[in-house]
Structures are given as structure tokens and as C-alpha cells.
Amino acid sequence: MSTEIEATPESVARHYDSVTPFYEIIGSRSLHFGYWPQGDAGGSFGEAQQRFTDLLLGQLGSQAGQRVIDVGCGLGEPAIQLARSTGCKVEGITISPLQAAQAGRWANQLGMGGQTTFHRGDAMALPFPAESFDAAWAIESLFHMPDRAAVLRELARVLRPGGRMLIADIVLSADATPEDRSFLQRAFVARSFSTTEAYPALVRDAGFELEQLLDVRENVLPTFGAVASALREKEAEVRQAYSEDFLAGVQGQWARITEHALRCMGYIVLTAKRRPLEE
């Protein structure tokens, strides 16, 4: 079972507003883990993030003309790539007004403003009518939510019957101690973590048919070493953007995060379809 902490929408927004420039320095505008096909730790963190976005695009399978909602869109890089690669239109929501504004500016600079829209939104009360989207994805955002099941029900509401949903989420194993859970929840500003075993029932109860659940733990774990390497390479840039104390603090914190995560963190990529409405 998950242990909850007081990660409020406001604290999540403040976290991303403060550390987004840091993530851009060490990786890219895609604020998610990297992916190594064979668990190989080679290549940069930014390149691995791009590979992961590519994999998720293939799993979602959206097509030109479809409308997709991105729950927890961050700076909009995956949404922009999704729109550019498939021709679909993407509506991104984030709890951070700053991120929404940055994502919109970035999309306009890339000529993708006509296919993407970004704004602040509450995933537990989506500001859209029923059956208004063909697909949805939530990349490393559900662990921030106060009620994961409520978000899934909202996604079922706004998706058309047969619409596809993709979730990429950190999970914890049964080996996680209370100390592991508490530390990782604070480190990732997470309200709760689920488990691989709990997810099938969660999506079924929300109105979805599970299609596939991939365990990609070994493919994403090299992220921890890649981030540590990027921190060493980008020390001067991080120091200039923040401070010497910030740099020292994040290096020490990342070592502790790595220790806990390697012991008990998992990662899933799940796809499901919205069940037809009952007659």
C-alpha cells in the first residue's frame, strides 16, 4: 500500500518552478527519466530522454487529426514532439502557470503553436467536456496527485470509448521500507507511489481495459548514473544558475536518492483503452 505525505499542488508547482532550469541544464526540456534499450548506460541523459519519448510515442499510437490530452505536460517537449511526429493536436495541462507559459512560448518558437495548447489545469477536475479526446498520456505525473484513482476516472470521462491511455509511472516494490517510501516521496515531491501489482485493478476500476504493462525498471535505472555524470560535466552552469551551496546540496541529495531508488524503485509503462459506455 502507498504511504501519503503532504505534497500539495502548490508545493509541486513551486518545486518545478524552482528546479526546471536545473533540469534543462543537465538534460533537456523533457522532464522525465531516460531510457536505455538494453540497460546500457552509454550516451547522455538528454539523448536517453529523447529515446524514452520516442518509445512512448510508439506505445500511444496517435494519428493525424486526433486530439490528445497530456496530463502533467511540464515544459511541453514531449507534447510538441507528439504533435510534430503524428499530426495530432495536444492539450497540455500542468499545475505550474510558469511551466504552461514557457511551454506555450517554446511551441510558438518551433512553429507548433497551432497544434499544441498549454495551460494550468487540475487533473482531478479536468476542464473539458466528456468524450472530447481520442487519447491521453500521463508521463511521471500521477505520483504527484492526491488521488490517482480520481485522475484515472477523469481521464476515462474525457476520453471517447475506445480512446487509448498511456501511463509512465514510478512504482515501489514490496522491498521498500517505510524509510525508503518517506525519503523518495519527499525527494520526488510525490503524494504517493503505487505498485506494479496494483495498477491493473486501478485502470479497470476507472473504466479501462488493460492492453499492456511493461516493466522498464532496468531500462530507466541508468538515469541515476547519467544524471550524476551530467552534474559533474555541468557544474559551472549549475553553479552560475543557482549557487555553490545548491550544487553541493543536489549532488549529495542525488547520491542518497540513487541509493534508495536502486534498492526498491520500479518503473512501468502501461497502455489501456477506454471501455465502451454501458447501455
TrEMBL record:
Domain of life: Bacteria
Regions annotated as coiled coil: none
Alphabetic keyword roster: Methyltransferase, S-adenosyl-L-methionine, Transferase
InterPro entries registered for this protein in UniProt: Erg6_SMT_methyltransf, MeTfrase_dom, Methyltransf_11, SAM-dependent_MTases_sf
Polyketide synthase-like methyltransferase domain residues: 22-256
One example GO MF annotation: methyltransferase activity
Regions crossing the membrane: none
One GO term of the biological process aspect: methylation
Transferase as UniProt keyword: yes
Protein name (record): Methyltransferase domain-containing protein
Provenance organism: Archangium lansingense
